[in-house]
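User: Quick sanity check before I run a bigger batch. Here is a single chain. Can you write out its predicted 3D structure?
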Amino acid sequence: MLQLTEEHRMFRQTVRDLVHNEIDAHADEWEAAGDFPAHDLFRRFGELGLLGLEYDPAYGGGGADHTYTMILGEELGRAASLGVSMAITVQTDMATPALHRFGSDELKERYLRPAITGEHVAAIGVSEPDAGSDVAGVRTRAVRDGDEWVINGAKLWITSGTQADWICLLVRTSDEGGYRGMSQVIVPTDVDGFAVSRRLEKLGMRASDTAELTFDDVRVPVSNTIGEVGRGFQQQMAQFQNERMIAAYQMVGATELALQRTVAYLRERQAFGAPLLANQALQFDLADIAADLDLVRHHNWVAVAAYLDGEDITRQATVAKLKSARLARRMADLAVQYHGGMGYVEENWPARFFRDTRLWSIGGGADEVMLRTIARMAGIVGD
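Assistant: Done. Predicted structure follows.
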């Protein structure tokens, strides 16, 4: 069983204070603006070593174990703007893991180090207009011309797309179909031919900018390739496990706080001569959430322990993402319902929480993709 130490608890308090002071204090402003100053905020997180907890100290990382990443995720889940939290975790667990694992020393020095310090904002470019959860549908192509890749195509749903300094881009580098012939390439956003074609207005996660990006004869050095040419799909699949686990950690923190806030409201709110929390039906609904929260949290702990032991956690990460997303959505629905009209207006937290949590069953691999993966790994269907 995972054991948390006093050092872990002190780290948790540090992150909680930072989230309160640097995110919560500005959340309403950033939500209204539909944006937040990523470079300024990331530098603050970078100063405290939070953008590269597990990364090699040689490039500015903390060299910590994965337990600290779990705590970071849980505390980011408690933020008043989950869109900002999402952008931070894109930096820590979606755009940079492959670079850390497979990138050359030169690439790490040029791109990973400034991402860890917060000097650079990073983005991950996988989804496209015709290829979301189906990664095999990626069409953006990189053709070799001497020592350069010439890249053409488009990417969609790109978090931090309007502010990113560079993108970890999944592209096709050969004519092989399906999952073969892909590579990961670092593309700086200041190169000729790169453009933000449109900024997307979303239902939730409004403080986080999301964009469609286009690449028109973009040239980057072949040396910007992460790892081996043609191994991009495999490298991205490994990176997806980090993405799914950090999402699951956030959802535990978010659900826990929403449960606490809803219970506090129902304890104070009077109706028919008694606190609403005196209603046994409400008690049981919330107890059911609390029980499932325990299950998801302990599942995450098992996944963390397996990860620390070097095991393949594909199944654990997939289950964690699926179940934590559905639990957060259930909690969001109850929060709005039990706050009544006050939960349906933008001036109170349940409305934003309801909008934001809806993404978690879509982004980072939709529920249906998680179920398809579990069905295959459980032997329910063939490959």
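The CA atoms of residues 242 and 300 lie 12 Å apart.

User: Great, the batch can go ahead then.
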